[in-house]
Amino acid sequence: MTIRPARLRALSALVCLVTCLAVTPAFGQTVGGTFVGRVHDASGATLPYARISISNVATGVVTDVVTNADGFYSAPNLLPGDYVVTALFDGFNTQSKSGITLNVGAEVPLDFTMSVGTVTENVNVSGTASTIDTVSATLRHNVSGTTIRELPLNGRDWTQLALLQPGVTGVGSSGGTRSGNGMKMAVAGARPSENNYRLNGIGVNDYANTTPGNALGTNLGVEAVAEFSVLTNSYSAEYGRTSGGVVNAITRSGLARPPRPMTNVMAPRTPATMRGFMRSSSFCR
Known about the structure:
The chain has two domains: 33-126, Immunoglobulins (Immunoglobulin-like, Sandwich), CATH 2.60.40; 139-251, Ferric Hydroxamate Uptake Protein, Chain A, domain 1, CATH 2.170.130.10. Strand 13 (196-199) and strand 14 (202-203) form a beta hairpin. The strands form four sheets. Strands 3-2-5-6-9 form a five-stranded mixed β-sheet, with no helix packed on it. It starts with a helix and ends in a 34-residue tail after the last strand. It is mostly beta strands. It has helices spanning 5-22, 145-150; strands at 33-41, 51-56, 62-66, 72-78, 81-88, 94-102, 107-109, 112-114, 122-126, 139-143, 168-173, 183-187, 196-199, 202-203, 225-233, 246-251.
């Protein structure tokens, strides 16, 4: 069976295209936060291959990592929330740190100083991590989920809260079926089209690259957003594709709660209450 030259050229072009797509590098996607740190003994000597157990208090998910030969560890892409971090090493007592809050896109340093003892001895340390970023030079401002859900936003657009951060200025609004219903923002003097809006690590910029949006021209509801951070300067290359600001948001996840007990359906129930936000042009006159 002979192959015609035209078919041979087409087949060769197809093979080259598939090869190029296969070797195309993928951009890193920072979805959650990261714990980094070093494990050492009381004299300062590193403890290689120590086990670090990271437990999410809300979901119950446990992530285990191991320190390298120099005693350093890194646990990236963890869901924002409160954590209990435990370090274990043979011949040393177990050390746990609780009350550690991790925000979206943050790098929280957490070092452990182990003392000689048995693994059954557990040393618990309660406290909060430092709010000063000592790992990177990124200028990051975090907006909590409580702020997103409780403040009465015009149009229920959570991106408006980014205007409250230092270095962010509103330059008008954009709406319609082809662009997002968010506010155009200039971050650190950059153009609105130079910003990068991310939701769960995926870019959600509209077709004009000025606001977040989708085919319906709307943003995700405020009830679904857990929190977001605004990066204004000196962020790492893993975010990519932008020279302005980065709005990095993450959606809410489920909680590890026990099932509710069965109740008597005939028992009287407490009257429910309703509350909400009202918009009326009569208040704007």
